[in-house]
Amino acid sequence: MSLSEPSAATDLSSDSQNRMVLVVYTAAIFVSALLLFSVQPLFTKMVLPRLGGSPAVWSVAMVFFQSLLLGGYAYAHFLMQLRNRAVPVAVHLVLLVVAMLTLPLSISSGWGDPPNSGYAIWLLGLFAVSIGLPFFALAANNPLLQAWFVRTGHPSGPDPYFLYASSNIGSFLALLSYPVLLEPMFTLRAQNLIWTGGYGLLIVLIASCGIMLLRSPANAADLNMPADDADAPAPSWMTRARWIFLAAVPSGLLIAVTAHISTDVAAAPLLWVLPLSLYLLTWVLVFQSRPLLPHKWMLLAQPLAIAGVVVLLAFGGEQNLLLTLGGHQLCFFVIAMACHGELARTRPAAKYLTGFYVALSFGGMVGGLFAGLIAPFTFSWIAEYPILLALAALCRPTGNERLPRWSNWYWPFLAALAVALIAPTWSPGTVMHWLDDRRVWMIGAVGVLSALLALGLNASRWKIFATVVVALVLLRAYPSDDGRVETVRSFFGVHKIVVTSNGQYHVLMHGTTIHGAEKFKNDDGTPVTGRPEPITYYHKDGGIGQAIAAVRERKGAALRVAVIGLGSGTLTCASLPGEDWKFFEIDQTMVDTARDPKYFTYISKCEPDLKPVIGDARLTFAREPNGVYDLIIVDAYSSDAIPIHLATEEAMEIYKEKLAPQGVVAMHVSNRHLELSSVVVGIADANDMKSWVYSEDSGRDSEYIFSTSVVVSARHEADVGALASSDKWAETEAEDHQRVWTDDYSNVLGAVWRRMRDGEQ
Asked: Does residue 62 have a pLDDT over 90?
C-alpha cells in the first residue's frame, strides 16, 4: 500500500464535503430568495382589497420590502462582527423559529379599515405588523449565509458573490412563477400553506448550513484567503457613498418605470412584475464569474438607453403599445445593468461583504422611498422617472475626455442651446409653433446628443447629465397632448384632465384610458347650456343607459340606485327628479375633480348636493341596509386595472343582499386587456342569479360615445324588463370549465388569454 493512498482518500473526502457545502448553501440561499419574493405578490394580493386594487399598493409594498431588507442586512452585518461563530448561528435559528410561529401569513386582526387619508403610512404599518418578522428573518439570509460560506473554508469562499446570483435566480423565478403557476392553480389559502411549508424546509437547510460552519476549522477562512484580500483596507466613506448612489438610482427607476408604464402607457395586468423581474435579472448577470454581458458593453449601451427613453417619452405610448412597453423596459434593463455592473466591479474583499450589502440595501431603500413615497406626494405627474433618468448619467465611471481643448466649449454651447429652445415657450409665436410641430425631432436630437457625448468624446458624466436635463425640460415645455392638460395625483394614481384643442370637450384620462368626458361647446362653437348629456360609456343608447331605462320602465316609479365609482360624475345626470342615487368612491381627489365646474359640470348641474361615500366600496357598501336598491351599477376601474375584489362570488353575494326584491346588478366590464364578462356571469351563477351580456360597438368614438361591455344580473328574468327580450342582450350561462373567482381565487392570466383569443377570432 503506497503512502499516497491515504492522501488521495483524504482529498476525495474533502472534495465530497466541499460539494456538499456548496449544494446545501446554494439550496438554502435559493429557497430563501424564492420565499422572499413570492411573499411579495402573495401578501400584496391579500391586501389589495382593502385599498381598491390601486397600483400604488405595489409601490408602497416595494418600499416596505426594501426598508426591511436593509434591516435584515444590518442585522446580518452586526451578527458577523461577533468573534464566536456559534452565537450568530444560534441567534438566527431562534429568530427563524419564532417567525415560524406567526405563520401562516394573515392580515393582522387588530388592523382596522384604511383611513380616509394617509394610506401609505397605514399600509406600511399593516405590512409591518402582519409579515414584518418572517420577512425580516428572510431578508437577513442572503448576506448571512454568504458570510458563513466564506468561513467554512470552501475553495470558492474568497469570492462568494456568485451566491448572490443564485439568490436572484430564486427571486426571478418566484416572480415569474406566481402569475403563471401559483395564482391560476391555487387559492390564496393553498398558496399560503405551500409558502409556510417552504419556510419550514428553509429552517432545516439553514440549520444544516450552521452545522457545516461549526464543524469547519476555526481558521478555515483565513487559511483559504488570498493575501491581498486578507490585507485589504476597509472601503472609504466615499466608496460607500458611491455604492449607495449606484444602488439607489436603479431601485428608484424600478418603481418609476413601473408607475410610468402602468399610468401613462397602459395598466395591463401582470405588468408590474416585469420591471422587477428584469431588475433581479441584472443582479444575476453582473455577479457571475464570467458575465454573459460584459460590463464595458453595458457602459457603452447606457447612454444610448438614456437617449432611448428620452425619445420614447417624446413619442408617447399610444402609437405602438408593445414597442413602447418593450422599449422602456429594455432601456431600464441596460441602465440597471450599467449601475449594478459598477457595483460588481467595485465590490470589496469578502471580509467586508456584509457591509457592502448594507450599503446596497440602504441605497435600494433610498431610491424606493423617493420614487414610492416622496415623489407621489411632491409631484402631480410621474416626475420621478425623468429625474432618475438624468441621475443615471452620473452613475458612469470617470474617464479621460477626448479632445479636452474643444470640450471646454461645451458648457457655453449647451447653455445657448437651452436658451434658444426654451425661450420661445415664454412668448408663444411663430417660432414656438414651428418648434412644437417638430417636438419629437427636437427633443430626440438633444437626447441623442447626450449619447454622442458619451460615446464620441467620452465626456464627463456631468456634461451628459446636463444635456439629458435639457432634453427632459423640453419634454415639459413642449407637451405631446393636443390641447391643455392638467394632472391630479393621489395614492390611487395620476389622472389627466385634457381640454381638447378646440375646447369642445373636457376628457378625464388615466393613462391612455378615458374615464369620462363632457361636451362644453357645440359644433358651431357656442357653449353647451342646460343639463349635460351623459356620453362616453354612459350614453343613453349604450349598455348602462339601456339597463337604467329598462329597470326604470319595469318598476314604473322612481329608482333607488347605488353606483360604485364616480369618475367625472357622468352618471349623476342619468338620474331623474325624485330618484335616490348614492355614489361610492375610494379616491377623494376624484370627487374634488368631478365637483370642480372648471373641469366637469355633471355634479354641479345634476346633483349639486351629492355626498359620495368615501372608501373602498367592498367595505363601505357592505354597511348599507339590505334589500333597498333597485339597481346597483359597478363601475370601479383604475385605468384598465381592475379591483378584483369587486368581481368575486363574495362581492356578488353582497350586491344581491342589498338589492330590492326585483333589483338588478349592472357591471361595466369594458377592458382592453381582460375578458371579464364570463367572470361576472360565473359569480352571478354561483349566487343563483341569471345574467345578460351586452357588447356592441357604438361607431361614434369621434363624438366621445364609446362601445361598451356590460353584464346585468338578476334573480329572475322579469326583473330586467325589456332587456330579456332585446336582441342586443344575450342571456348567458356560466361556463362549466371556468373556475369561479372568489376572494380566495382569481386568474388574471386566464382573463388576459381569453381577451387575446377573442381578439384573434
From this structure: no
